[in-house]
Hints:
Blueprint: H1 17-28, E1 35-38, E2 42-51, H2 52-62, E3 68-78, E4 83-86, E5 90-100, E6 105-109, E7 117-134, E8 142-148, E9 154-160, E10 163-169, H3 181-196, H4 202-216, H5 223-239, E11 248-249, H6 255-280, H7 287-295, H8 301-357, H9 361-382, H10 388-404, H11 410-448, H12 453-461, H13 477-494, H14 500-553, H15 563-595, H16 609-624, H17 626-629, E12 638-647, H18 650-659, E13 661-665, E14 676-689, E15 692-693, E16 699-714, E17 717-722, E18 727-735, E19 743-744, E20 750-755, H19 761-767, E21 774-780, E22 787-788, E23 794-805
Parallel strand pairs: 2-3, 3-5, 4-6, 5-7, 6-7, 11-17
Antiparallel strand pairs: 1-2, 7-8, 7-9, 9-10, 12-23, 13-21, 14-23, 15-22, 16-17, 16-18, 16-21, 18-20, 19-20
Helix pairs in contact: 3-4, 3-15, 4-5, 5-11, 5-14, 6-8, 6-15, 8-9, 8-14, 9-10, 9-11, 10-11, 11-13, 11-14, 13-14, 14-15, 15-16
Amino acid sequence: MKTHNHLMSQSAIPADWASFYSQLQSKGKVPDATHDAISASLAVFRGMALNLADVESKIRSAGLTPLRVVIYADVLAIPKSFNWFAESTGLTIYARRVEAGPDASILLDYQQSDTANLLLFTGDIQGTLSVSALKSLKDEPKIYHFSGAEASPGVLVSLVDGGVIVDRLKPLQGRDLQLSADKHAYLNNVFIFGSLLYDQDPALALSLLLWVKGWSALYSELEELFYRSTTLANLLNAQINARENGAAFVPYLSKTMYVELAQAYVQEATKYESDYMQLFVCRQLTAQNIATAKSMLEQADSEKAYVEALLQQAATNYHNAVSSCDKAQLNFSKQQIITDRIAAQFQQIGIPDYQREQIIKAIVGLVTAVVTFAGAIGSMVSGNAAGAPAAAESAIGGATAIAKAAETTAGVAKTAGGVSDSMAQLKKLLEALKKVYDLAKSVMDVASDISAAKGQVEVIQSLADYADGVDLSAADGWAVYKIQADNVMKDPVDLNIGFAAEYREAMDILVVYGQAVSASQLSVIRAGQEFAAITFRLHYAAQKKESLHRLVSTLKEGDAPVLAMMQQFYFRYIDTKSALFAALKAYQASYFYWALAPSAVNPGIVDPVQDLNAGLKQLTAITMDTSSALSRFDPPPQTFEHMTFEVNDPKILHDLQTTGKASWVLPLDDAAFADLDRTRLRKLRVWLEGAQPQGSHDQVSITVTTSGNYLDRFGGKDFQFSSKPLTRAFHYEVKNHGLNPQWAFEDGSLGFVKMDGALDDEYRYYYFEPTPFAEWSIVVDTTHNKVDLSKVSKITMYFEGSAIAA
């Protein structure tokens, strides 16, 4: 069990937890979230928000002194100046959060008995909880104070062999020999409320889900809770600290699912919701209630078809994200080789010259730190991390030392401080992203082979499960580092130090590819966990079907509904709405790419089925009806033609001439697009100046691809997206004359399009239009159509599309 009490600082903490959870329970129609049972031997209190003073009052009213009191709560309040007095009663508390008022205390009196104790498992204590242990009136009581995470994950205060001891406990020591029905119901409820808060309060939801994840890992019976809480927590980790305009994944959307299957599914979901509500308000079962429960056991074919389509869409999105990540990683690795080679030349030739030229030695030290850090970060991103974090930390330490040195001038100190901070933040980003990525990958492996689920619980639970507040969207980390590193490299470049300019250029390109890798890894996390979440829902729903049948078969008229049955029905109710919610979130992501702003259509998982369906219909109408939708931009997008980008870098041209392949980056600050926002492409062509078809063939056949990572801007903000890598074929003929050519080469020959690089209407209309600001690659077919590329002197990209005047 790991504590993440700092999550609460990101959440809007309710002034009254009891009212907050009561209202959420009422709106969400959660079954029996509170429960009290008091006997002479055991008193159990279960609820999301409990008050220790109320617990004491209820026990006193019962006229009993239980041997043990067990409290299961999400939040346990201990009021100001309240004192829990225990002569023989043991008090056990499971509470994710304890809120202790001033002078709140627990007194364990050992004058007459040695059985009183406090067993507390918590993630956070707000305020200070005092625990006093009194052995006799002659002796001063021993007083212990607990606050924050000091009692986390567990603590036991008891009398052993005549002495008061405080034992620090591990979560495993809070595991019962047999999972009690109350603890099971408690963890089910915490998961339910975490699910309901998923979109309303992500930070609180994440804290709840991590609490459930930690405890459910200890019980084989709670395998479902473990994997479901883990996948939801991973999804929240991927978005909770991400900037609004940080890296976002643009999903593939299935027209069949949204248009043809959704309507039938909504009808079944609405009926299930209505049936559940009948049981929810029922206090004594009737024959009709029992018949309703039996009908709720069966899943309609339309429901199965919709969920299977949703799963297929999620699988497609995951594979698209992985493909994008693989391409980004390949591009980065290639550029790292180039950067490392130039760095070696700069270190061997340039830096020694720079040391002779520059009298301020601190600046030379900064340049060395930048080169060292870039190499280390490159190794970390490429997965060759042995020694890389230590090297990065050494470079950060070197820059920090320069910033703090007494002899460093103010200007140099400021530069050193800036580069040191940016290096530290980038390193933290990469380390946090790797933690979440590794955890998400392990979960995805289980989802792909569900038979391994039981054996992987301990492995997955051992992995880090929180991003430590780092913005995983990589919105700033790479960009800020580039600015700071360029500042450091400015001096040696201005002095024309050997290989300084080449190194700065190579490093800048490496940063672009590095940002793409980080963004695509985040997309893999999100897409993979969405697939895993649906997979686990389907698997465990099928697994629980037999036990649910048994519970329903025991129902009798006049009895109250069984809590275990109601919770299982409620899980399925959440799953039913989650299927619509997942579809809605996918469309919201698509809308965000289209509008570069969040959608105002935002129903929550707690809302009724019809609200979710209405939101989905409204959002899809906005997205698909482009003629009316574009009017919401002011000024609206305008179409453009004949926009070009020329590639004449000798290294890129050499690659094309020798291998038939080439890659380059079209940067967001390219001058041709300088006064344009929200640029979208509908057609692209690639013309090769100097390419000569051979023999009887006069055709040049090119495959154009992107890595699936795109940049854009709107309203002064930059945006980054990952999506399915784009692949388009472009074929053209080279002739010396002809009517209506599409291109005129510098040597006088003409280009005629045979297969255009246009996006087909369905792709454009329903899914995605790329931006030009991406990593582009081409492959020339030299097998079927012989082409001499040895004299290629320029690559020209031609674009048509739309944009908004900035």
